[in-house]
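User: Structure please.
Assistant: Input sequence and predicted structure:
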Amino acid sequence: MGIATGVLVAALHQAGLATLTHTPSPMKFLSEILQRPSHERPFLLLVVGYPAETALVPNIQRLPLGDIATFLK
């Protein structure tokens, strides 16, 4: 489920949509609100929409591998 959600979020971003994921704990409240059976459990809330014209997105860069890993020979 997590990988599929990641692919969905990437596709939505590619389409120009903004997303917000939220994984509240516990999720039981959502099952109660939606009147779902006890064997069904929500995984996450995914809000999708068009970003505001003035929305700013941080420019996040990946760290070089050498900064986060050490390899022994």
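The chain has a mean pLDDT of 90.
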